Amino acid sequence: MSEVVLKFKHGAKSYEIVKALLDAASLTRLQSVVDLTYGVGRFYRLVRRRIVKLIGVDVAKHEWEVAPDEFYLMPCEAFVARALRGEVALGDVSLVVVDPPWNSTKRGAMPKGLGISNMPYHVKVDPRSVIWAAIKLARASGAPLLYRYREPLPCKHSVRAEAEVEVMNNRGAVYYGICEC
Which domain holds residue 140? Predict the structure, then answer.
């Protein structure tokens, strides 16, 4: 199968793009989805019914738009290490998802126990280590990786998307993809 490339104009919502990616990849029923940068769960707004088990991982607990079935409050690198050692039962993983911060800070909240906060993170996060953790988990599970990042990943894509963005009068693109790592 050849790679499908989707283009989106400025203003497209992430959940619309994720739905289009899953549709184009014919991923209609997903046993288990592991999202290593869960955030508020916005990606799943239009596709939650397709997912039997949704597992979220993040360094903070947010006010969810779409709640996961299981949530792990920890850095994704630590979660992946635990999963690879067999300390976390993931079941049959159908898809690994990652939307890392693009620089050393990320919107969100600093964890306060298990409470919820709207303050910015005060944690330095390296987006490359987050991407590599996701790739490790995808390879180990044999599942495809769905990502959103500032550049396309150098993997074999089944579907790739480019969405126009405008930040502070600078035009650019955000890249999404479903790939085999």
Answer: 4-180
CATH number at residue 141: 3.40.50.150
Here the tokens at position 15 are 């959940």
Digit-coded pLDDT (tens) for 40-80: 999 999 999 999 999 999 988 889 999 999 999 999 999 99
Q: What is the pTM of this model?
A: 0.88
**How many structural domains is the chain composed of?**
1
Q: How far is CA 13 from CA 46, 87, 143, 173, in A?
A: 11, 35, 25, 13
Strands 156-167 and 170-180: antiparallel
Beta strands in the chain (DSSP E): 4-8, 30-35, 51-58, 70-73, 95-98, 145-149, 156-167, 170-180
Handedness of CA 31, 22, 159, 162 (dihedral sign): negative
